[in-house]
Amino acid sequence: MTGARKLALKPRGDKRAPDAKLEPWPILIVDDDEQVHQMTRVILRDLDFQGRPFKCIEATSAVEAAAILDLQPEIPVVLLDVVMETPDAGLRLVRHIREELGNHQTRIILRTGQPGDAPERDVVLAYDINDYKSKAELTAQKMFTAVVGALRAWIDITTIERLNKQLSELNDSLEDKVSERTAALEESNRALARSKTRAETALLRETEAKAQLRQFLSMVSHEFRTPLAIIDSSAQMLRIRVEKSDPGGVARLDTIRGGVQRLLGLIDTCLADEQLDSGRIVLHEKSFAIAPMIEVALAHYRVAAPTHLYSTRTEPELAVWGDPGMVALVINNLVGNAVKYSPAGSEITVGSSQDGSDVAITVEDQGMGIPAEDLEHIFERFHRAPNSKGIPGSGIGLHMVRQIVEMHGGSVTVESRLRKGSRFTVRLRPSPGPGAEGICPVRDGLSGPTPDDTVVAPGAGGKISGSDGG
Ligand code: ADP
């Protein structure tokens, strides 16, 4: 409890000038000696730290100081005397601050006038204080240094605590977000699992339905073929017998035979389409010239359907990459349809040309055309336009055409005007080689739709084999 010393001190806490608008740093002076309060006030009055002046809050006893700290726990520094109302009042206050108030941020500088009562080493070890000064040696400069040091420590501690708090808040919100996201993910996983099960069930049903269709087709094919062959051969024999005696009977027998052929063709087409659909067809691709294939197809139709005029517009050198048997089937289906859906005497033109990086094959007729609203459905299985009513057909041919073309990585499109005609365009990949190597021996008598019939699948028994069409 020493008196005030003479001050010759004008230090600044930092380079900033004190700002009247900034809150002063509250410093709690706890001492029962009025002179100590006065001296501290004088020292701190003209000083500042970080542009903020100091404000002395004064308590003359430990009890008073405890009450102040209870109300203002954010006081950064306490300058604390030891001997006040009792010889260890200051030390008891330290315990109270740390243990009862739970205040570990406030920096406590012990300022003792009688070090003998509270030896520094014992006090520093036993109490959570931050500095120990003897009043006798505490010059103005040293006090300022001690206060600024304590303030810096308080700023660091409170900053760390604030950041820790923010971090844990952030952690909490992150955890909330993670659990929200996890719940959402789990829900979408469950939804995914449900749709997977639905899709698997649907797939299973579809596979079963396809297997049944295949079974049915093979049964129909097997059970119908023999009686149809018997009907056909009987009609043929009868025809020979009545040829001379009954010309009217001949025509009726021809109608019977035409019907039989149509039924056989339909069975073959259905089988071929099903084979394509179930992916049981393997392509045997190679390079081949397209113009000769078109010529062979047209030669067939010139004989089978002499009612029409046939012309070509082909670029002779063009070669495509594909399965010749399959491509021939496509051309024959399209030409067969052109014959079927255009009047006798009209012209059918088949062309081939380079179209960008593709080879385009076109089949044009001057027939009935396709209604605009049917164009987008025309390649769907069993779809028939209303204007084809009365003309025999199954609606399978174009579906098959599209499947074959797409298996080749190509495309098929149609343009059509009612009562003016239609043009189908098939785009295929060109031969990668410099010319047409391995020109395909196009099959004789390629079976396409006969003028009065639906598509007839190629080869013996109408089976698609993915061959070179030989
Ligand atoms: P189908 O001829 O056996 O009915 P397609 O699948 O070959 O079966 O043809 C589907 C439908 O497309 C036909 O029923 C017909 O309505 C229409 N169509 C196909 N080609 C032509 C064409 N060249 N001209 C007019 N309509 C056509």
Provide structural commentary:
- The chain is an alpha/beta fold and 470 residues long.
- It is built from ten helices and 13 strands.
- It has helices at 34-45, 62-71, 89-100, 120-126, 140-242, 247-277, 290-304, 324-340, 372-375, 397-407, and strands at residues 25-30, 48-49, 52-59, 77-80, 107-112, 131-134, 286-289, 309-314, 319-322, 347-355, 358-364, 411-417, 421-428.
- It has a six-stranded mixed β-sheet with strand order 2-3-1-4-5-6.
- Strand 2 (48-49) and strand 3 (52-59) form a beta hairpin.
- Helix 5 packs antiparallel against helix 6 and helix 7 packs across helix 8 (324-340).
- The longest helix is centred in the middle third of the chain and has 103 residues, at 140-242.
- It is rod-shaped and about 155 Å long.
- It binds adenosine-5'-diphosphate.
Task: Please give the CATH architecture of the domain at 280-460.
Answer: 2-Layer Sandwich
According to CATH, what is the topology of the domain at 280-460? Heat Shock Protein 90
Taking the sheet with the most strands, its summary is:
6 strands, mixed
Q: What is the CA-atom radius of gyration, in angstroms?
A: 52 Å
Report the CATH superfamily of the domain at 280-460.
Histidine kinase-like ATPase, C-terminal domain
Helix content: 40-55%
So how many helices? Answer: 10
Distance between the termini: 123 Å
Strand line-up in the sheet with most strands = 2-3-1-4-5-6
What ligand species are in this complex? adenosine-5'-diphosphate
The CATH class of the domain at 280-460 turns out to be Alpha Beta
Principal-axes shape call: rod-shaped
Overall mean pLDDT stands at 86
